[in-house]
Design brief:
By secondary structure, the chain is mostly helical. It contains 8 helices and no strands. Helix 1 crosses helix 3, helix 4 runs parallel beside helix 8 and helix 6 crosses helix 8.
């Protein structure tokens, strides 16, 4: 169980990259998920259902990993970045901006910006919710901010 837990929370060991694991996790997530969205490989409903399943599994496995390692929000855990990118891509049709390259670049840069800065309420969640849900929720907040900003850019474009 430890082996599978480790693979899951670290996104196949990407979380073990020494420098900027969250950034590499975000990039890896875009590489994995973007083709699914861009090529319409599955329906939006199935895409959302898979997100919910991965979200629930993430809570379970982050809890197991935290127990094994005696840590709360280890840098190795990057499944939260995966869920953050995944959440943004649920709204891809609404946030498509100018062309695919710009859209992907904006998603990546804005998500990392908001994930690193942890703007309210993500900062409170990061400080006060010391459980697997808190580990994930601050990334979902960063995703929401990303979606809002790109959507607003589209409205005024």
């Amino acid at each position: 169980m430890k082996f599978f837990t480790n693979i899951f929370v670290s996104l196949f060991y990407v979380g073990y990259i020494k420098y900027f694991p969250g950034t590499f996790g975000s990039l890896f997530s875009l590489i994995i998920l973007f083709p699914v969205v861009a090529l319409n490989l599955i329906s939006t409903k199935l895409f959302i259902l898979i997100f919910i399943i991965i979200f629930i599994l993430s809570i379970f496995f982050i809890n197991k990993f935290s127990y094994y390692t005696k840590t709360n929000d280890s840098n190795i855990i990057i499944i939260d970045e995966f869920l953050g990118i995944y959440f943004i891509l649920i709204f891809y049709e609404l946030i498509y901006f100018v062309n695919t390259g710009y859209t992907i670049l904006l998603i990546f840069l804005l998500f990392r910006f908001f994930d690193i800065l942890k703007i309210f309420p993500a900062n409170l969640i990061d400080k006060k919710i010391k459980n697997p849900f808190g580990v994930i929720l601050d990334d979902i907040i960063a995703s929401i901010y990303t979606v809002i900003i790109i959507y607003m850019l589209n409205v005024y474009n």
